[in-house]
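Re: iron/sulfur cluster structure - here you go.
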Amino acid sequence: MDITPVSERRKTRQIMVGRVPVGGAAPITVQSMTTTKTSDVEGTLQQIYALAAAGADIVRCTCNERAAAEGLAQIVPRSPVPIIADIHHQYKMALAALDAGVHCLRLNPGNIRKPEHIKAVAEACGEKGVPIRIGVNGGSLHPDLYEKYGGTVTADAMVESAQDEMAYFDEVGFEDIKISVKASSVPLMIEAYRKLSDVTDHPLHLGVTEAGPPPNGLIKSTAGIGTLLAEGIGDTIRYSLTADPVQEARAGRTLLESMGLRERKNVDLIACPSCGRAEIDVYDIANRALEAFGEREIPLQVAVMGCVVNGPGEARDADLGIAAGNKRGHLFVKGQNVAVVPEDEMVDALVEWAEFMHEHGADAALARADTVKATREAERDRNMLLEKQGDDVNDAEARVELIRKH
Ligand code: SF4
């Protein structure tokens, strides 16, 4: 399928966060943030590796104290992805993070307010070629702006805060900037990013701040980030969840892949919602399959379908799938039956076929199969089920009849 679901991407300039380009024509990147104490070097690195495996291109660590900056000095050279230091109130921590070798700083203009401090950081970044994210946050807007806009956080106030900050950087000729205007309200952040995108060509970092625990946090973040991405706005994204940050990285990656904005990296597991025809516990098998594939880098779409009556047809566009019937699992590749396995081996068989296909391709997978026998077996179980359950196991036709009688 060759469908482009998003508007043309808004043109932004490009900056480099370490070796990762952000903005311009670069792929949209996924970010996440560690939850460990940055001074705990081994614990933080372990989390960074887990985040990178789950799809994070860039990771942010807090730099709130000297011990954190010292931790960063050891973390940065061993990290598989570029590291951003999160600076809140102390501009000196920004300078310490730069000494530690970080690839980018994130500053919150609501928290570092003295122009001379902002300029000192910008100058030090300029000397080292390190970019800065201006991270405006609806919840920590500068009090003057808050007052100016009637004691409430508005999209205009957030954009003005970003522009005020940019003006300080302009004064010292520093342009290596990306910007975020996050809010916990989805409509507010959407409006703020739309307005910001109209007035700047700096790359934009998207997020719904304090989105909360899943599933609500996931839904809010997807609504906000997904809407903007569909409009062509955004160069890098972060899900801010109250959960293991691995979930943030995974969610970000999945959103980009599902919108066709990034190449698929891991298995895209699809599954039927289950219905009266299901021959297995679809939820259980799908979850076990998801766990078995884990972070394996197999960029295939794999389907778990509850019955062999409709499953292979409904999932014919998947690269690989399995459908249950008569206590057996019917494997299919590109819609063609390839093998039959006992029900309790369905997950193992899926993983084994996916690995084979990833390594050798779909044609080789079809070539090693006895497709005639597999199709015959599938047809046999399909007919058996139809005989046992009838064609209208979900009672749809009976209900239609009833409706027509009124
Ligand atoms: Fe799943 Fe079969 Fe029901 Fe479709 S008909 S939802 S494949 S169990």
